[in-house]
Predict the 3D structure of the following.
Amino acid sequence: MNNNTLDKAKEILKKYNQEHLLCLYNELSDEEKEKLVNQILKINFEEILTLYKNSFKEDVFSLNDISPLEHFEKSSFTQSELYYYSSLGEQEIKNGNYAVVTMAGGQGTRLGYKGPKGTYMLDLEPNKKSLFQIMCEDIKNANKKYNIEISWYIMTSEENDITTKNFFEINNYFDYPKDKIKFFTQGKLPLINTEGKLILQEPYLIKEASNGNGNVFNSMLKHKIIEDLENQNIKWVFLGGIDNVLLKNVDPLLLGLTIATENQVASKSIFKKSPLEKTAVYCSKLGKPSIFYYENIDLETSEKKDLNGKYLYREANILSHLMSLEAIKKVSNITLPYHRAYKKNAFVNLEGVKEVPSKPNTFKFENFIFDAFSYFDDMLLLRVNADEEFAPIKDFTGIYNPDTAKEKYINYHLNTDK
């Protein structure tokens, strides 16, 4: 280990009052010492500590700033309207102007599963299928239908990137054209405890975590995905999460509606049945498309209706988004706001012993993809049927569990022409 490098790391830690990160340094091997020091030199301490301090400032929220965001309902369209809008979208797709981005940076921890969430196997008959295979089959169906090969971009994390790539290799890319799949990693930030101290995951490793799905735009820029899209003359990009087994990655109706309404951004929503369910809903904030966070929604607001008896704030976000490449380029240079989450994380203490806390002890900072929508004057919002398009797998104990997802997946495919 170069003494100058170590001295520089010590100087940085002293400046930001984080000297404890080297408390076990003398007990490490040379390789471990180098790994820890290099990590310290790469971390933006100014950024994480500023986020920590600013997160304690009171968030000023006023219902006066909020108004409903207009939306279409798929169930209200006539057959001729569905045909017209879908035809518009189909033409763009057939022309090769469409690509898919799947956000798959998470691990299967909440499922009690070790490994990338996309490699989690859903017990379907006659064979189990991974979430990646389910997603791949959906895109392959579109390729077959439109006689094209859609470029598929998969956002991983540093934590699961190698494992994910190996999984695709082992499974022969699920017979998808290998040259049409590209992987890129999202960014990450250190976790920080309630005293403003970064924590050690191992004596030689500072605990970091992915910084939210909103980082997808910056990551696409950093890893030259945007440049690759431009080189292919792609005009539209669908962005969705890996855990929804009913996600429609290629929906000509959504695309056609977006084109017809001259929008650059579109999302799908489902009706929020329970007024106080912990789900964010779409709204307009200060005249711009936005998200109404559930912690700010009281029963009175959630129950509000217009003169026709339709609820004003019940369009729940399902992480199903469409953006023009121009829109993605615009927000790729913007740092979206960060949101603080209070999490429980094991850590290595000053004596080198790993502690597992019984309650949340750290803050994680994430930015969310829907915060990008406020940089546009309007967006297209389409309400769809949850039984047809929303079956996420989150954990074993909540409403979005593997058994429920399996049931919805089987029912949908039994009742739908493939």
